[in-house]
Specification:
The chain is α/β, with parallel strands linked by helices. It has four domains: 122 residues, Rossmann fold (3-Layer(aba) Sandwich); 157 residues, 3-Layer(aba) Sandwich (Rossmann fold); 84 residues, Helicase, Ruva Protein, domain 3 (Orthogonal Bundle); 49 residues, Orthogonal Bundle (Arc Repressor Mutant, subunit A). The strands form four sheets. A five-stranded parallel beta sheet has the order 2-1-3-4-5, with helices on both faces. Helix 16 packs across helix 17 and helix 19 packs across helix 20. It is globular. Keywords: ATP-binding, Nucleotide-binding, Phosphoprotein, Transcription, Transcription regulation. InterPro entries: AAA+_ATPase (IPR003593), AAA_lid_NorR (IPR058031), CheY-like_superfamily (IPR011006), Homeodomain-like_sf (IPR009057), HTH_Fis (IPR002197), P-loop_NTPase (IPR027417), Sig_transdc_resp-reg_receiver (IPR001789), Sigma_54_int (IPR002078). This is Sigma-54 dependent transcriptional regulator. One of its GO terms (biological process) is regulation of DNA-templated transcription.
Length: 457
């Protein structure tokens, strides 16, 4: 049974008809007292709770009711219903234990999608199986490993893939966030539809709208034809928003609107377009910390992380290092036409001891460089050591960090900070010394939160 709590009879009736049409058993109530009478009679599978009652419009009564429900019935999932103008109330409600929020006026398809997703997740039982059992049920061909941490993640991925729940994938650079996003899509009902990848860290704030929502002819100087944006390209499929933590606040607002309302307007157009997409986001940054610092919107954070998947660093699952190394070598056999290529047992054990700060990406680069530089078919410890030593020598000669120990983004930040210090925060001089335009430098200064002399602007 689903319980609808709203003092507006018209809304209760509308939601009841919609949900009953989908085969759900539904009960509607109009006050806190009636809510607890219904709860004592039967524990529902899900509650849809409006935060605003006619007594007041601040949401206080609805929030108090949510707190009482979660205190007495903590296992019952609650979806909040609120207006776009009071979305901050929904964010507070998420902190109090609500699992999702819907804004008025709602879209029937989106509301049903949220209900189905939450009921699906609450009813599924853990497989508690091996990698072999997971592979029998799901498609994880490109994900290598048997570590218990990874198996727990794959089980979660398999369970949530069949829903349309938004997923946030977190983890250090090089841990395989894109592979997990692909696995979610490939195991979903949308697998035959497009899977569109967007690196938000590589899109400037000025191009954000055009890239994601498209533009019409004449929208700006170089817009000679209409162009579809990434969301339109991903219609009925999935969109992967990588490096979402790099978005500036103004772009975050625009993204929140399309995620919330499932509509957007191409740049230069006044006509709204509806989009049906499954949203998967990824970041290597701490979004909760960014929320507390005011650099990432709290309402956007709660909108994208109904499900959060945190990937472990490779050093946290060392037993998977030999498996990954062997996987990379087997791929390189075909690429470089060396069918007898293999790793020695000693090399397999030695690789397992490496810290690999760059995670899977660093391991892959290390294996491929060693294959290219070694003339032997059996790669031993000494082959890897020679390669790593050569890499360290080159890095030392050029005063560069060793490959895999620092990301390109971190290196960029350090170089800009060093140049700003050297040129005493004079933007024009820093831009010339780095070989970029002042506009490009401004974007990076804002991105990394580096202060500069406004008089130089």
């Amino acid at each position: 049974m689903l319980l609808i709590v709203d003092d507006d009879l018209a809304i209760r009736t509308s939601l009841t008809l919609l949900l009953k049409k989908e085969g759900y058993s539904v009960k509607g109530v109009g006050s806190p007292d009636e809510t607890f009478e219904a709860l004592r009679a039967e524990t529902p599978e899900l509650i849809l709770l409006d935060l605003n009652f006619s007594i007041e419009t601040s949401g206080k009564e609805g929030m108090q009711l949510l707190q009482r429900i979660k205190m007495s019935y903590p296992a019952v999932p609650v979806i909040l219903i609120t207006g776009w103008g009071t979305i901050d109330l929904a964010v507070k409600g998420m902190k109090e234990g609500a699992i999702d929020f819907i804004t008025k006026p709602w879209q029937n398809n989106y509301l049903l999608q949220s209900v189905k997703t939450i009921l699906n997740l609450s009813q599924q039982v853990s497989l508690s199986g091996s990698r072999r059992k997971l592979d029998q049920r799901y498609q994880f061909d490109n994900i290598v490993g048997q570590d218990p941490k990874l198996l727990d993640i794959l089980e979660t991925v398999g369970r949530v893939a069949s829903t349309d729940a938004p997923v946030l994938i977190t983890g250090e650079s090089g841990t395989g966030k894109e592979l997990i996003a692909e696995a979610i899509h490939l195991n979903s009902k949308r697998k035959v539809r497009p899977f569109v990848k967007v690196n938000l860290g590589g899109i400037s704030s000025t191009l954000f709208e055009s890239e994601l929502f498209g533009h019409v002819r004449g929208a700006f100087t170089d817009a000679k034809t209409d162009r579809a944006g990434r969301f339109e390209m991903a219609h009925r499929g999935s969109i992967f928003l990588d490096e979402i933590g790099e978005l500036d606040l103004s772009s975050q607002v625009k993204l929140l609107r399309v995620l919330q309302e499932r509509t957007f307007e191409p740049l230069g157009s006044s006509k709204s377009r509806t989009v049906d997409v499954r949203v998967i986001c990824a970041t290597n940054r701490n979004l909760e910390e960014m929320v507390s610092q005011g650099t990432f919107r709290e309402d956007l954070y709660y909108r994208i992380n109904l499900i959060t998947v945190k990937l472990p660093a490779l050093r946290e699952r060392p037993d998977d290092i030999p498996l990954l190394s062997e996987f990379f070598v087997n791929n390189l056999k075909t690429i470089y036409q060396r069918p007898n290529l293999q790793l020695s047992p000693a090399a397999m054990k030695w690789l397992r001891t490496l810290s690999l700060q760059g995670n899977i990406r660093q391991l892959k680069n290390l294996v491929e460089r060693t294959v290219l530089l070694s003339g032997e078919d059996t790669l031993d410890i000494v082959d890897f050591q020679k390669n790593m030593t050569a890499g360290k020598e080159v890095s030392a000669r050029k005063n560069l960090p060793e490959v895999g120990t620092i990301t390109l983004e971190e290196m960029e930040y350090q170089m800009i900070a060093k140049a700003m210090l050297f040129h005493q925060n004079k933007v024009s001089k820093v831009a010339r010394s780095l070989g970029i335009t002042r506009f490009a430098l401004y974007r990076r200064l804002e991105k990394y939160g580096i202060s500069y002399d406004s008089e130089d602007v």
